[in-house]
Design a protein that fits this description.
single chain, 210 residues, alpha+beta, 2 domains, two-stranded antiparallel ribbon, 6 strands, elongated
Length: 210
């Protein structure tokens, strides 16, 4: 502080030693250590901190709109791709495609969080303790949004299967139905009774329910 404020000027050798010592002691506070390390980037401890710090910062991507829009990405990522498919079964794909054909002028989104669909502040006082917990964890399989009304959700569909006969899942389904009922919204639950039902049968069904 004395040196930086020019109250007492350290000799360069001592200043370098002092800075390196500060960097070493602040290694667990990367931002602070980096600010000191910049003074002597060629010193080993400073170089280590600078390299470590820069790895935490996103990489700027150059593009034609760079003067107006910034784009960044993390510099280092895992070399293993852990992404998963959006749909878990052929039935989900068929139902989604059927919804798109019937509601072709609307937007259909799968796996939408309940908290993105209902007003928590207005609804929370009406919910039980279990419903409040489920509110921020539950999702709706398919939701139709009306983009002309500022993307207001207008239709809600659940695609059920034998998995929904399990007691644990039944409880979750009941919580979801109760939450939406209290919100003045109906969820349509769709379930194949025949394994041979395909996209075409879904299209016919949705057209009748529309």
């Amino acid at each position: 502080m004395l040196d930086a404020g020019k109250f007492y000027k350290l000799e360069e050798t001592y200043r370098k030693k002092l800075i390196c010592q500060i960097v070493r002691r602040k290694a667990d506070k990367l931002d602070e250590a980096y600010n000191y390390a910049k003074h002597y980037p060629k010193e080993k401890i400073c170089e280590t901190i600078i390299t470590k710090y820069e790895k935490t910062k996103p990489k700027m991507i150059e593009h034609s709109q760079g003067h107006r829009i910034s784009v960044t990405e993390k510099k280092e990522v895992s070399n293993v791709d852990y992404t998963i498919n959006l749909f878990k079964s052929l039935q989900e794909i068929e139902f989604f495609l059927a919804l798109k054909k019937i509601y072709d002028s609307y937007h259909i989104y799968p796996n939408v969080s309940i908290s993105c669909l209902l007003n928590w502040q207005l609804l929370s006082d009406k919910l039980t303790v279990d419903e409040k917990k489920f509110f921020f964890n539950g999702i709706v399989d398919f939701v139709v949004f009306d983009q002309a009304e500022n993307y207001k959700p207008i239709h809600f569909f659940e695609l059920d299967s034998s998995y929904h006969d399990i007691e644990k899942q039944k409880k979750k389904d009941n919580l979801k139905d109760s939450i939406f009922a209290k919100a003045g919204v109906k969820i349509k639950r769709i379930r194949k009774m025949d394994r041979d039902v395909t996209e075409q049968e879904f299209i016919k069904l949705i057209r009748e329910l529309k």
